[in-house]
Amino acid sequence: MELARAAAVLEELRAPAFRLEQLRRAVFDEAVASYQGIAVLPAQLRRDLEARLPLLSLSVRKVAISADRRARKALLGLADGKVIETVLLRPSPTRWTTCVSTQVGCAIGCTFCATGLMGLSRSLTPEEITDQVLFWRQYMRSEGLEGRLDNVVYMGMGEPFAAYESMAESLRRLLDQKQFGIGARHISVSTSGLAPQIERFARDFPQVNLALSLHSADEKLRSDLVPVNRAFPLARLSQAVGKYLSLTRRKVFLEYVLLGGENDGADSARQLVAWIKATGPRELLHVNLILFNETATRHRASTEPLARRFQALLLGEGIKATLRQNLGRDIEGACGQLVVAGGEGR
Ligand code: SAH
Ligand code: SF4
Asked: What does the pLDDT look like over 143-153, one tens digit per residue?
């Protein structure tokens, strides 16, 4: 649902001005899933709206729930028949987070990522991005799940900065008190390293969290793993992140998927330390070590002892480093596992 479109449709229907506020409240604050549920609107108006203004631009095809019930993955159909995935996570009993997609597939082609193997079909519209949040709010309500969904991470399918305009507009709508009312500090955007957009993001959204998927501080290895490194190599990334830090004074999260025998050795840790030291103040660069989730790729996971040693090397240099908890592995809803089976999304 787009608020601007809702206003235009109500005007076409010659509804009085206060109807917009009633509709807005039902859709965004109460997450009502059908017009039948909006009792304050007259029956005829509900029917007219139903025909002209769908509550969601996407339709649910399937929801999978992890065994521990802390992760759910939905397969959503778009108006043109393409399909995306979106994830709902419960990192703690009272917190809910959604991991949204910004594209159908992804053109970056990271070799360890299931979405990367699909290639890019198209970017999503702002509405298709925010409707993933709306979908989960409706879902939580219909399933009677307690708590409020007010954390959003742009870490689903696609590269958010390759769909910059859509991403930016979707962020404005999530931040808007009249729409989703989500706090900037509760939103994180993750990029594979599009340097010019990192600088632009610092100016446009200095309060929204930024994550950079670094994965290696070795030029050759990073170019192999994250091919966009050829366009924006490590020195250029360092410059962009340095600018981001000086403009925002906010912490940047460096994502680092530990791949067994590739980027998990002591030398790799030292290269990472050197890159961080050259980039900015250590206290503003926080490393998120991620255990590799199985995908149909040639890579394998690092072992727990090696991951711990890698973390210890960073901590020893005064760099904050956490090993990320993986939710949703059993339903292939964890990072990098999002892919629509059989290329159905293309
Ligand atoms: N395209 C953006 C955001 C989506 S990916 C980006 O790459 O940053 C979200 C995170 O999951 C990224 O850090 C990505 O590198 C990581 N990831 C990808 N494949 C993974 C896998 N198989 N196991 C664990 N993490 C993975
Ligand atoms: Fe795209 Fe991110 Fe996957 Fe790389 S890790 S292919 S940038 S979705």
From this structure: 999 999 999 99
